[in-house]
Amino acid sequence: MIALCAMCFSLQAYYLLRIEPIFDILILMSGVSTLFTYLLIRIAAVSRIKNYQPEPRWDFFLRNMFWMRLLTILSAITTVILYFLLPRSVQIILLIPGLISLLYGITIKFNGKQIKLRDLGFVKIFLIAMVWAFAGSYLPAINAGENVYSLSVLMLFLANFFYIFAITLPFDIKDMTIDAMNNVRTLPTKLGVRSTIYLCYILLLISGIFHWYLQEVILKTTNGNTMAIALSLIATGVAIKFTQRKNNDTAYFGLLDGMIILQFLLVLLFSF
């Protein structure tokens, strides 16, 4: 599902920037590379996962290790092939988020210590938000030959950044026990659960303000994008509230990830 979310997030950038939609190699690579990254992170952390408390997602992953490894290899090969089919300008700009994504799950040595970017609790959520926001703004703009220094692309990047930040925080809340086992400090452990949820709502509001400024002030759109975004942000706020009542994988991975797809569908609907 997360691969589909990545594809939708990149594709909707064309509609929000009023660019002719391009469903091409970049969109496909967004999905495949995201799948590869998420699988790689879990493969690299398999020794940790075995010590986690039983959960359906971890049980399924451990029972199907052969297929998980095979899918990781296949998605890696596909990602490399698609990468070299992209325009040179896109290849170059992809190096930065690509490197961050790889280092996020792979152990690296620094000053004699072995660390992972995902273990840098206060940093990891910023990296996630930045990579996703970049994929949902600058990459599609570059792929379409647009001016990446324009204010409109920057506004979309910021709107996406705060949105992804908001829907990622509940996952940190869910993983507080796991993070504590690995001595990973996150915002929920610092702020507390209630304050973190309030922060999510504030971040959604900030995202909405940037979206409003992009659509109504810069682009002066009349196609309903502002309404589509507003509805998606309200739905996301409700979903975040719901996750605090239903602490299970479906509520998080199905509902919260689904908000990204919902946002795309609403933007698509109001674009006609």
Describe this entry's structure for a reader.
By secondary structure, this protein is an all-alpha fold. The protein is built from 14 helices and two strands, in the order ααααααββαααααααα. It has a two-stranded antiparallel ribbon with strand order 1-2. A hairpin with a 2-residue loop joins β1 and β2. α1 (2-16) runs antiparallel to α2 and α13 (225-243) packs antiparallel against α14 (249-270). The radius of gyration is 18 Å and the shape is globular. The two termini are 26 Å apart.
Keywords for this structure?
77% helix; 272 residues; 14 helices; mainly alpha
Distance between the termini: 26 Å
Radius of gyration, taken over Cα atoms and rounded to an integer in Å:
18 Å
The whole-number mean of residue pLDDT values reads 85
User: Total strand count, please?
Assistant: 2
Helix content: over 70%
**Uncertain stretches:** none
Identify the overall geometry: globular
Main sheet record: 2 strands, antiparallel
Query: What letter string, H or E per element, gives the SSE order?
Result: HHHHHHEEHHHHHHHH
Strand content: under 5%
Based on secondary structure, the structural category is mainly alpha
Spatial order of the strands forming the largest sheet: 1-2
Total helices: the number is 14
Brief description of this entry?
This protein is 77% helix and 2% strand. With 272 residues, the chain is mainly α.
